[in-house]
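Input.
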Amino acid sequence: MNEEKFTIRFLSVNDIDQLVEFETYNKENFEKFNPTKPDSFFTREGQEMRMEHVLAMRMSDLAYSYGIFVEDELIGTFDVFQVERGAMQNAWIGYCIDQDYQHLGYATAAMNQIIKLAFSQLQLHRLEAWVMPSNEQSIHLLERCGFEKIGLAKRSIYVHGAWQDHLIYALCNEHYGQ
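Output.
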């Protein structure tokens, strides 16, 4: 990672214009491993709707959406979602890094900070990530950050016009950093 510092914070309505630019610029790259989004998603109105949903989910303790910023420029998003409380204290984690900032260490550094936030501030016990077997970058990121492959969800998510298999990775707070 360059000597540039990055910040992590909750996404807000003030980020809508940057989200439009970020999602539009990276659309082709992100759609390699994610479900196709409607054209409306890549508009200001689409991101306003997204932000309404993000804020409602955070207020309900169901999901938390973070932006990764370098010098106030949005370079990535991380989502801690499908939060389950009670006996489970579990959530899923998802992430997207701007194609111009990949392979520079930002994803690893940000993932480690998000994990710490999830285990301390959100008081989660376990994080889970699903990744397509062909997404080698994401697999390496998860493994670098301590996630362990625990299984395979066959034909689990509809991507590129077909049901795709996904590897399941998990990390428990007592195993983080070991």
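The beta strands are 6-10, 64-70, 73-84, 90-97, 126-131, 148-159, 162-172.
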